[in-house]
Amino acid sequence: MPDHKFDLIGVGSPIMDLLATVPFEFLKTHVGGDQGGMVLVNDAEMTAILANLANAPATSTGGSAANATLNATRLGLRTTYLGKLGNCDVAATYRQRFADLGIDSSRFKIGAVPNARSLILTTPDADRTMRTDLGAAMTLSPDEITPADFEGCRHTHMEGYLVFNEALADAVLASARAAGCTVSVDLASFEVINATRPWIFKQLASGIDIVFANEDEIRALFEDQNSPFDVLAKRLADLGVIAAVKVGKDGAWIASGHELHHIEPVTVSSVVDTNGAGDSWAAGFLASHLRGKSLAESGRIASHVGAETVQHLGPIIPDDRFAALKTRLESVA
């Protein structure tokens, strides 16, 4: 086995999250669109929504692959990250936060405009609706991505939001494969899938090792609103991947080849915010899978990490709770 400097490289948009809790009426009056998922907005649209919030939002480093990379680091993987930061204090804070956690920050690229930001609106049902201004992250060009960015890395985890720019996502996956990385993709949102379904199936045919999806995403992928999730997980696995399908309070299904595992949910007394839970789940799974644990054990560990995340506002588990989580994970078999 080759000697890798890094177990995992995350690839995505390094976004500063703006976190707010809002009533359902706020979405209808000031946001528009369906509840849930993510829609891209420009700076003016973001500013208009922010102006209508009752209180200033809290802030946290975010971005789907960034969240997964951060938690995988806290779970013991050696990690680095590829994405484009802005030219502002927000970007400097973001980069320093990663460096402080031990994530290699040498592969960040720097843009000529301010950093990306995402407004995450959590409703009383703990669902989250996102509006994202990609800022500098949107200026990342396919021409900036080469196999050298992935040198020394064992596994690449790419967020599905990059697929809105199909040429960029193509460059990431081609460069990762050329560098000898295995690859996972989180399908990210039903909006991504509805806009890019042919691209997704083309890349699945080209070779992806792990696909993460939730209930809405797996149904959108196969345009199937009726089949049970175990059937959909097996259908995805039949395309040659490890299929990890998260089904909320019903746990998850993991399928690969002839294997099919139902992962029991980890119940919690209070759900505060689902933002980042799927990213945490992916981190738990990858941190275990890349250490050679079974699919079932990796899924169980992932469920514990995801369950801890929903008990706090934002995608980052507080340090004291993360320490307790790691202790619990030692007894998960």
Quick structural overview:
It is built from 11 helices and 15 strands. It has 333 residues and is an alpha/beta fold.
What features would you describe in this structure?
This protein is an alpha/beta fold and 333 residues long. The chain has helices at 24-31, 43-51, 64-74, 89-100, 166-178, 190-207, 215-222, 229-237, 277-289, 295-309, 319-329, and strands at 6-11, 15-21, 38-40, 58-62, 79-82, 84-85, 109-110, 116-122, 128-133, 153-159, 182-186, 210-214, 242-246, 252-256, 259-263. Helix content is 38%, strand content 22%. Helix 6 links the parallel strand 11 and strand 12 (210-214). Helix 3 (64-74) packs across helix 9, helix 7 (215-222) crosses helix 8 and helix 9 (277-289) packs antiparallel against helix 10. The chain starts with 5 loop residues before the first strand and ends with a helix.
CATH superfamily: Ribokinase
CATH topology: UDP-N-acetylmuramoyl-L-alanine:D-glutamate ligase
Separate helix tally: 11
Low-confidence stretches: none
Please identify the top-level CATH class: Alpha Beta
CATH architecture: 3-Layer(aba) Sandwich
Order of helices and strands: EEHEHEHEEHEEEEHEHEHHEEEHHH
* Total strands: 15
Our measurement of the CA-to-CA distance between the termini, rounded to an integer number of angstroms, reads 26 Å
- Dominant shape: globular
Helix content: 25-40%
Q: Main β-sheet, in a few words?
A: 8 strands, mixed
Output the radius of gyration: 18 Å
